[in-house]
Design brief:
elongated; mainly alpha; 4 helices
Length: about 100
């Protein structure tokens, strides 16, 4: 996969993973525990799980292509398990990439 295409997919998946996590936490879980409606958790949980794994795989791929250290991958993992973390991580990554292009 070309590097710029990989980076585009990384950005898309990072945002989608962050959104799916928020949907799971802020919509599906309250519906489960307050309205006793189980289906949204099943759908949002499965979607988030797939996006979470995809995000980690792409993080590993991007880190390898850009010769990032293991600490970078660890930050990506931590960002994926903290609400809004994927958004912050993706934004910082974009700033890093822009700074590298300027230098």
């Amino acid at each position: 996969m070309k590097e710029n295409k990989l980076l585009q997919w990384f950005k898309i998946i990072a945002i989608a993973e962050g959104v799916s996590f928020l949907v799971l936490l802020l919509i599906a879980m309250p519906l489960k525990y307050m309205a006793h409606y189980q289906q949204p958790v099943k759908i949002a949980g499965m979607t988030h799980g797939i996006l979470f794994i995809t995000f980690l795989i792409l993080s590993f791929e991007v880190g390898g292509k850009l010769k990032k250290n293991f600490g970078w991958f660890a930050k990506a993992f931590i960002a994926a398990i903290i609400p809004f973390g994927a958004f912050v991580f993706e934004r910082q990554f974009q700033k890093e990439m822009l700074a590298e292009q300027i230098n």
